[in-house]
Amino acid sequence: MLSKVILIGELAGLARYPEHKPLIIFTVLKAGMFTVRYVFFHVLEQTIHGLVHGETFLHSVAIAGKGVIPARALIVFFAFIAFFALFETRRVMGKDESFASSWAASSAQDRQMRGGLQF
User: Fold this and answer.
1) Less crowded by CB within 10 Å, the N or C end of the chain?
2) Is the pLDDT of residue 85 over 60?
3) Cβ contact 30:83 at 8 Å
């Protein structure tokens, strides 16, 4: 479900914000937008599932929103913050630079620039 929401949102260009804002603000706003979309698509999917199985529309909607939506939305929101933080950092730094900073061994020159500290 999450992958469908992210794919549709990215392809439609629905997550375009002014990119001159700080990265954390952009990340939290994007996570909030995608959380709202997730909740909408979750309720829609559960409603269609109920209709296919012979329930009435109102009963299907009631079952879809049965008390767990706020908890689920909160969990998804924080998962999206982590996901989009990595995604946007990679976008800003560039694919090669973000990979190198994450996985490559640091060189002696890098350690010297950090004051000889070993991380």
Assistant:
1) C
2) yes
3) no
Instruction: Let me know how long the chain is.
Output: 119
Q: What is each CA distance from 68 to 2, 26, 55, 64, in whole angstroms?
A: 17, 27, 20, 9
Phi, psi of 103 (to 5 degrees): -120, -25
Q: Report yes or no: 14 and 31 within 8 Å, Cβ to Cβ.
A: no
CA distance linking residue 80 with residue 100, whole number of Å: 24
Q: Roughly how many angstroms between the first and final C-alpha of the chain, as a whole number?
A: 38
**pLDDT over threshold 80, residue 77:** yes
Of 71, 14, 67, the residue nearest 37 (C-alpha): 14
Query: So where are the chain's domains?
Result: 2-7+21-95
In this structure, the number of other CB atoms found within 10 A of the CB of residue 22 comes to: 8
